[in-house]
Structures are given as C-alpha cells and as structure tokens.
C-alpha cells in the first residue's frame, strides 16, 4: 500500500514515516511539510513536497495526517476528495463540528478513516480488551479509567494546550486516549455525566480536571478521570471488574494484573505482568520504543482496514469522533448539571 505522510518532520510524523519505511506491506509514497527542506530531510528518498496539490498528485492509496488537530480538517477533506484513505492522529479535530465534517467527508468519499489511538496496542491495554472478550473475568460489570500528567510543564507549544487550538484541556490531551479506551471496552458510550474544573492552571477553556461517568446503551458504566494535576506524573490506567474477577492495565510503566476465580467469592488466582522487556528497553532507549511498536501494529491494522478486514483493534472514524464528542460533553454536563445524551454511532463502514 502506497502511503503518504503529512507533517512528516513533526515529532510523531517522523515516527510514522519510519514505521511506514519499515513495514513490508507499505511503501512511503511521498511526504508533505510546510517547508521543503524539512520535508526532504524526512523523506527517506521518497518525493518531498511543501504544496498539498503537488503531494496529492503523487500516486498513493492513503495518507497519515500527523499535524496538530486544528490544522487537520482541510487536509482530511482534500485527501478524501483525492480518493485516499486517511489515518489521523488524535484528537480528530479541535471541534466537534470539524470532527463531524471529517467523518462525513470520509463517508461521502467511501474511504476509510482511522483514528490514531495507538494506546489500544500497548500490551497492558490490549490485554484488558482481550481478557474481557475471552470471558475470563465473567460478565463485565463496570470500568474505572484514568489518564493524567502534571500539567503545563509537559507542553512546549501553544497548540498543545490552549483551547483555541487544542479544543480544551486534559480531556483533549492525555485523557482522550482513555476516553477512547472506555468506548473500545464498552463498545459504545451514549450518556456522559461529569464535571470539569480549571482552578489550578487557569487556561481559558482548557480544563485541568474532568471527572465523569460514561454509560453504554445497555447500562454498562465507567468512572473516568482526566487530569493535569496528576502530581505522580504521566499515567494511564484501566480497570475492568467482572462477576468472576478483574483486570488492570497501566502505563507508564507498562503493568497489568489479572485476578480470576471460578465463581464470585471463590479463591482468587492472581497473575501480574510487569513487562520487564519493555521496561528495560524504555530505560535503555526511551518511551519511543513502545510508541513505535504501537504505531507499527496500528499501521498493519490500518492497511488491513483499508482492504476491508473487520474485527481489528484500530480505532475507526466513529471512535475518533465519539472521543471528541465526549471531550465536549463532560464540561457541557458540568455546566448544565445534567447528563449529555449521544446517539449511538456503532462501527464506521465506508
Ligand atoms: N498518539 C500519540 O501518542 C501522540 C503523541 C503526541 C502527539 N500526538 C498527536 O500528533 C499530532 C502531531 O503532534 P506532534 O507533537 O508531532 O506535532 P509537531 O508540531 O512536532 O509536528 C507537526 C508537523 O506538522 C507540520 N504541519 C503543520 N501543518 C502542515 C500542513 N498544512 N502541511 C504539512 N505539514 C504541516 C508541522 O510543520 C510539523 O512538522 C497532534 O495531533 C498530537 O496531538 C499523538
């Protein structure tokens, strides 16, 4: 599959390019950057461009769009108009309306849209999904999900945290991966009740904290927290409780715990996995080792998605849209004091 990369010189774009170059089923078709020299420096010999029209004139099947969210809509729309499949970073867009227009453009063009929720591929979180599906913890009762870090010192650029570019605060940044995780595990989220606060960092429109309850159409509930005052440092954690056990996945460090029993209250069997190999690799090199592995797995799924495969781990356009809708719904619920109801989206089909 011939894949182009938009934003190829960026922090994540460089990793996307390297992933495509390393993938036998993919070919780097072209790269696009705002500046031709930076495009050439990250092109690995592929055609490099600083003009969208010239980039899209190259023969290719799909693009990865690795720009900041507020710049994504015209790029997505142009890619769909050119008949390409699109994989975008998260969040899909910095507005709900823009996200909906991107999904609509994919539908009209009958092309696939993938949302870059690569944490689905982190082994501890993949384990949570697989354990739930295998029935090992019995019937799923509820989830507890959180994502956070210690706030503004994690941002170098305005677009990363100022609401006019980012859409909002913790819900749109570190939290959005876990919002997606909640929907991935619950299969759908149609009700959101919550509170968002901003008394610590005081960035207009960007919440420091969000506490929420998500509900699925069949009554499954998740408690959720996204935070920019997670003073313990960067963390994401997912816990699923079932009638015959529980499973927890966490990062960083990568860690999982599975507790199972034959019947409610029977002797528990515990299995802890500290993913020593990953922890050593990250200590010796960096977190990028884990991110790169997840991008590689996501790319393989994206290629399969574009070929019509089903039942994949990759987030589709509806997952990407719902995560943005929920990021907007939590503060809205906080303002009104009422739950926000969302129509089920289901899986996205081209
Ligand atoms: N999934 C993850 O783990 C993860 C982690 C960090 C960031 N992200 C997301 O990835 C995206 C990019 O983040 P980043 O840190 O790499 O940003 P970055 O600023 O380092 O890179 C963005 C690149 O896009 C380029 N660009 C901007 N507009 C363009 C245009 N019109 N045409 C071509 N190139 C253009 C910029 O020149 C820049 O090189 C963001 O949406 C961010 O939220 C995802």
Based on the model shown, name its key terms.
single chain, 350 residues, Rossmann fold, Dihydrodipicolinate Reductase, domain 2, 2 domains, 11 helices, 16 strands, 35% helix
* Assigned CATH superfamily of the largest domain: Dihydrodipicolinate Reductase, domain 2
Molecular shape? globular
Oligomer: single chain
Task: Indicate the CATH topology of the largest domain.
Answer: Dihydrodipicolinate Reductase, domain 2
**β content, as a range?**
15-25%
> How many DSSP H or I helices?
11
Alpha-carbon Rg, integer: 20 Å
Q: What topology, given as strand order, has the largest sheet?
A: 14-13-12-11-7-10-9-8-16
What does the model show?
The protein folds into 2 domains: 2-118, 3-Layer(aba) Sandwich (Rossmann fold), CATH 3.40.50; 120-341, Dihydrodipicolinate Reductase, domain 2, CATH 3.30.360. The chain has helices at residues 11-22, 36-41, 52-56, 72-81, 96-109, 123-134, 163-166, 174-186, 276-284, 288-306, 317-336, and strands at 2-6, 27-32, 48-49, 62-65, 85-88, 113-115, 140-148, 191-197, 209-215, 221-227, 235-242, 245-251, 255-260, 269-273, 315-316, 340-341. It is 35% helix and 24% strand. Strand 13 and strand 14 (269-273) form a beta hairpin. Bound molecules: nicotinamide-adenine-dinucleotide.
